[in-house]
Amino acid sequence: MTLHLAVSIDQPGAYEAAPYAESALLAERGLLDFVTLGDSFGRPGADALAVLARVAPGTARIGLVPTVTTTHTEPFHVQAALATLDWVSHGRAGWAIDVSESEAEARLFGRRHAAPAGELWREAGEVADVARRLWDSWEDDAEIRDVATGRFIDRDKLHYVDFEGSAFSVRGPSIVPRPPQGHPVTVVDATAPHARDTAARYADVALVRVAGLPGAEAARAELRAAAAGFGRDPDALKVLADLTVDLGDGEAVVDLAELIASWHASGAVDGFHLRPAEPRRDLERLVNGTVALLQHRGLFRTFYPGSTLREHLDLARPANRYAALAGDRHE
Amino acid sequence: MSERTHASKKRRLHLAAHFPGVNNTTVWADPRSRSQIDFASFEHLARTAERGLFDFFFLAEGLRLREHKGRIHDLDVVGRPESLTVLTALAAVTERLGLAGTVNATFNEPYELARRLSSLDHLSAGRAAWNVVTSSDAFTGENFRRGGYLDRADRYTRAAEFVRTARELWDSWTPQGEPRPFAHQGQHFDIEGEFTLPRSPQGHPVVIQAGDSPEGREFAASAADVVFTRHGTLEAGRDFYADVKGRLAKYGREPDDLKIMPGVTFVLGDTAADAQERAAEIRRQQVSPQNAILALEQVWGVDLSSYDPDGPLPDIDPDPESTLVQGRVKITNALEIAAKWRALSRAKGLSIRQTVIETTTRQSFVGTPEAVAAELEEFVATGAADGFILVPHLTPGGLDDFVDRVVPLLQERGVYRTEYRGTTLRSHLGLREPIWKG
How many CB pairs (< 8 A) connect A and B? Predict the structure, then answer.
């Protein structure tokens, strides 16, 4: 089982691009699968998707996963921005779905009141669903540039999604052609019970914050069973243990490599999402210390065999749902 | 000698670049035409604009694909990435160029958009601009939570309040960098809380306004830093310029506080005849036989697909109530236009396609680099514009010739910068940083 490693590059109080760009490059030097950047409308900092778009041209392989909330945003804008992040990064975009539960965040918009987490996560699932439909609303070969007939696109390969959700509806198609990965990678922190269903149904990567090995094992088994229950191949859902790491102590680098190796060997998780306690120091120790040790033991990649985030994660490029339907019709 | 003393002798002109859009100005059938989506295209055009010391790079917005006869319009370029995300990525591959994005004030909320724009301004170290536009139709609204119920009058008051609210948010932190709570209560928005970003490196992102109605002009005079206009002729340009600049005083603003920049096209040639010939060829590429019929249907409002583009205009009358075409400006005086087209076609013996070529928008500046440089200077010297937003017809190389051949001539004439003096877009445009209103 391939070991997957991701890291948060959150840096409270940083508003300019440089510290994020440096961290992402460092993570890329460590051959990690992806970096995450947290976000909410209530926390100080720049828009996470914007930060990672700014980071994209200066990096080549690392996956870029901003948190994008679904409660107060427009699903149509969200999917267009993520598809664009995938275009500008040549297939390295993902999104960590989150919801906005607080009344304080609701007051920033003035459109609706705070709602219970269960309701918000159901809506988040609908946003994930409509985003995928919109990413599929252009077939990959819709652009034809046929000079003879004067047609730029084959409009039979563009599709209305006509989505009716509980809190919104979207007609489609997207204005952005299908992104390089087909669908940017969907990440859900599945620690909270309310997020579990949405994760099992829509996530490519689920994060779980757990206290120890048995907890991780149980969470992974539960998520995989739930994914199977939704008709999914459980192997298409990667479960990463979400750990905050403090590498201040010289020995901590080795301890962390031991822990990663043993959890992973037991099959408890597909990998780890690590949150450095001290952003710059710990990321550097993680890459130069822990990752180097794991590579030395043959447990972690020594080069990126692919170029897209899906390739790093061993996830297939999704088939286009509308192309499949059209194919059936033509048979 | 100061920059200002120089400027008083010869007015400096400003240049910006528009990424080729999804209308038939953009020629996709040309073998040199590349992707309108790949980042490499945006990077090429933006780097070219920066090499030409342009003030900014400009992106339009799409919220729904255009339709014709109830089906997606397939003749022009279709599809584009989302503006602010592309611009933020471009901040990584450019250093001085301003980055301007069109974002709708109807289907967005002030808190979120102010935050995205401020993020772009921080991540580009002070180079962000926002072109404020509005839309009212239910057609576009079908993709959004809000839907399509905002009428025309409301969309302007909403846009004006939207910009005011954004400015309140951008000013909500103290100049020392401490967050302070904001509260806005108005006709359209009732919001409060704390903004998540300090005041940005140029105070506020530059605000651009496009649109020509009296409400639009007033809105520009009261709130915008740049006006993006379509008045591409000297006479129309002077009238518009005088009118809009004349509206500034009542808002306590100086004429230089608002830059007027028409969107213009250009065709260069080694001789005047060569340029004319190229211009005619580009017009033929822009108005394909299929596009000629489409242009006709947009005026007539009925299906004309059985007509021969190389044949005469139809004798039937337009249907003024038609909603044949959606997602673009509706033709309001169809009967009048049709009569004019028929008269022209008869007088000159023109086919449908030739009539469309003759009557629809043509290139603004056609000539040798010397002639074009002289004409651009004349516009600015005689008060028809402060500068230009160039709209090339090719992606992404459409600006190469202009930067290589016209920019040096403008520099020789002493009407264009030879280097960037400042780092922010406001400094390129000679705009003051907005006073902090805490």
Answer: 178
